[in-house]
Amino acid sequence: MSHRLLALMFVIALCIGSLAPPAFAEDEQNVWVDPQLPSDAIPWDKTHPELLDEDMIVAKSAILIEASTGEVLFEKNADEILYPASTTKILTAYIALQMSDLENDVVTVSQNAIDLVPPTYSTVPLSAGEEVPMEDLIAAMLVMSGNEAANAVAEYLSGSIDAFADLMNETAQMLGCSADTHFVNPSGVHDVNHYSTARDLAIIAQVAMQDSRFRQMVSSATYQMPDTNKRPARTLVGGTSILKPDDNYYYADATGIKTGFTNAAGYCFVGSAERGNIELISVVLYTSRSGRWTDTKKLFEYGFTQIASISPESLYAEDPRVIDISGFSLDDAQHGELTLGIRAVDETRDMTIIGNQEKIDLLRENFNQVSVIQWTREFRAPINIGDVMGILTFYAEDGTTADYELVATRSVAARENAPPTLEQIEAYTASDENPWPRFSADYFVPPALVLIALILLFRFIKKHRKKRAKAPNIKPPKKRYLR
Predict the structure, then answer these.
(1) Annotated active-site residue in 61, 100, 145, 272
(2) Is 89 a catalytic residue?
């Protein structure tokens, strides 16, 4: 009976263990062993980055999105629940930036904020009682992954770690994260109830990167931390290899964001890269030491082959409008044909269109259906280079519009002795202060000469025509009667 009871308890224990959110070992004391690619995986070919398969990525979970739209370009087990480690600090920093006054908020680091960091975890380090500006604490947790800095920020903003964790979960839900994301601390220190997914971390990073202060911090490999009441000024050196030009894993297009590692989480990295007007965000979870960089670079190279960007000006320039000018000089080699260039009315406005190649090609084919031209002047010489001939209005997919001037790309001289244009006549009339028509011999002499000529011709004909002979007056014969 006792053996059956023990067996039953063992089965129950296994079932309870299977309910834990992550699907693998939670013991932080275990020695980390880097995962490897499958033995039968096809090698990734950097000369053909558009060919990317899940087996070419070491990470257990990965995702790649286009930053402006959130469009998913690649994913591998993106919804699997895993430990996020220090990538947690992305959300902590985002909340701190929204809630803080960076110019005036100064945080006094508590002993509790320091004691909550396990011995093997990264620290700035900071001392109890040290007074640190909020901006420096946020930078320290992002660049050097200072866990006590994250704790100090949480205590300052919410009063306790637990209260801040509640705020983190509320914020994650507000940003659109799933129920598969749950935080219990601001730093990512391992806890079985602290977990997320690659997809949710990409959502958080996408929102955080919209803050220019966050972007600047995560794009830096080092941070100059000024002196405090406890310590002199120092340089904090981060561990994001793809941001360091002298590192073997350097990636020129990389712009951040945050590393992470615990034995249970493995090596993690939430990254960003920008090329031209295209920005990508990647997440790799539970990958190898080198895999967080090689996986990320594979994802970025793949993404840049899948997404294109183009502006309305470029779309127009591929098939510019050509008009025919009347009244051109006989010496004009192009016989009045004029190609119009394009120029944005508001040059500060960015109307870049980003999407997959199919979307761009479709827009290219239907550009005339998403734009309208209003002509602003007559197509008649003379035309000077740079003259505005019309306004093109482009209608973006999100409902916004942008105006562009269509300008002459060359000058077109007018034909000599050409009759005045309607615009010239109207301008001349408008500038004339005399309300009565002006008298000019040009308007009187020709009609008068024609009238005189007609009168003389009539008199000549009348004088010289022959008179008709009169018929004789013959009396009709008298009537005769036959008898």
Answers:
(1) 145
(2) yes
Beta bridge partners of 61: 285
Q: Kindly list the distances between the CA atom of residue 164 and the CA atoms of 96, 124, 204, in Å, as whole numbers in the listed order.
A: 10, 21, 16
pLDDT at 387: 96
From 86, 187, 219, 288, active-site residue: 86
Task: Please tell me the predicted confidence (pLDDT) of residue 436.
Answer: 65
Burial class (CB in 10 A: 0-12, 13-18, 19+), 170: exposed
- CATH number for 21-308 (one of 3.40.630.30, 3.40.710.10, 3.40.1350.10, 3.90.1300.10): it is 3.40.710.10
In the DSSP assignment, the letter for residue 5 is H
Q: What is the pLDDT of residues 348-389, one digit of tens each?
A: 988 988 888 888 999 999 999 999 999 999 999 999 999 999
Which stretches in the chain have pLDDT values below 70? 1-30, 421, 435-444, 465-483
Q: Is 212 a catalytic residue?
A: no
Q: Among candidates 443, 466, 446, which has minimal Cα distance to 454? A: 446
Residue 273 near residue 280, CB atoms below 8 Å = yes
> Does the annotation count 145 as an active-site position?
yes
- Predicted confidence at residue 468, as pLDDT, reads 58
